[in-house]
């Protein structure tokens, strides 16, 4: 049971957690390209099959350790030793224990079995110690606090012939607590698709800090020289690295498309609205797939999480830990174990404890509010997406009417009683006659989670750019959250996926990146602009090319955009 707990993201397609196999036949020698970044020298390996060079594990920031733990990313020190990228660290990560119950639910377990599993998980949560956690979740040997690295993959012809092509930057998802730059899979076929009828693209993927290492926040934390949203700053630092250095690899810094799923897409929305400014973002286009993030707006919520971390540190590590300075002194292995325990105990159900928060600076308000107020980068073209059943894997399997009310109150502790009542009785009322998009209590909870966390976010981004945005609706069964990631990174190695759908999706994505925001191209069904009529392309395993009105174009999403619950 415990093994499944930590692999279920793969099972239910929340992430692929694949090995770094983007270099199927790497070779390294003095004949291969060496890029001089001034502070470092990097030598490529070559994939002879795909005809591309891969520059792996380029340090883009100094190690976030010691005094830089919980701090802003800093420029890396000069190290002129030739680096061939063989060192492949990932940031410390973990998963919540509620995932076990979700896995049992999706496998068809009855209510009696679910209750038994829930009791086992609760008992396990209460018995965890820093010493015992590794027996439930063995530490990946690649795990390191020194993890701020990125990969650059370049078509061989682009580099050798000194061409300049667009850039596609991947930001991974994983609930802000798991994942790495390779976890979504191998981009080989995506890159091959990009080379059809063009020179292709340069591909970049980055690591960023996760869990308490990247997302601690609150006024107490900030007053002690902690940086809220440090992981967002990691991502921004990497995007600025791209602007400064990607020309050395054949990439055009004026034609950068960022793409992300779930937490990656939610992060991109925060970069689009950074500082509540209309200034240009460090990219020109964005592909935002199922953007999700916790709507943590108040300092009280952030303080509760920070204080919980301190209390658990006192209980599990040392009762002398009271400050950020004390947390900085905790050895890495112990702090990583604490991180695992804090995340394992995440609640309410379906949440991950950590994620971006309103910090008054980089994130002055929630992105939905900033989009509504016109405070966002205006220089962008966007593609948004959401799936047909986003919320199910985050829905408590034993949900009741009372649970829904209590869960909303826990999710939105700042909401007034009147606001909570309106959400429960008017926005998602217990009405099961077909007039709402649900017919029972589980579906009601699922729709609420889908809209609160993903669907409405995608709509807010699309609405901000109605004449320069496209949007797709992914309905391939089961349509769970992040199910489309496997299609984005499809390589023909999974016969459970629909190859036609995968090739079509990859065509849209790469066309969008190559042609200044137009996903259309030869052999593909017409992908319309989102526009004022909220048109979405339906990506289905039965019919490709049908169009429908965005299901998030509803009064519920409109009511939530100004965040009346905040």
TrEMBL record:
Domain Carboxylesterase type B: 47-539
Record GO terms (molecular function): hydrolase activity
Keyword terms, alphabetized: Hydrolase, Signal
Keyword Signal carried by entry: yes
Keyword Signal listed: yes
Enzyme's top EC category: hydrolase
Domain of life, per lineage: Eukaryota
Signal peptide segment: 1-17
Transmembrane segments: none
E.C. numbers: 3.1.1.-
Coiled-coil intervals: none
Pfam assignment, any one: COesterase
Family matches, as InterPro entries: AB_hydrolase_fold (IPR029058), CarbesteraseB (IPR002018), Carboxylesterase_B_AS (IPR019826), Carboxylesterase_B_CS (IPR019819), Type-B_Carboxylest/Lipase (IPR050309)
PANTHER family assigned to the protein according to its UniProt record, in alphabetical order: CARBOXYLESTERASE
Family from the record: Belongs to the type-B carboxylesterase/lipase family.
Protein name as it appears in the record: Carboxylic ester hydrolase
Biological source species: Blumeria graminis f. sp. hordei (strain DH14) (Barley powdery mildew)
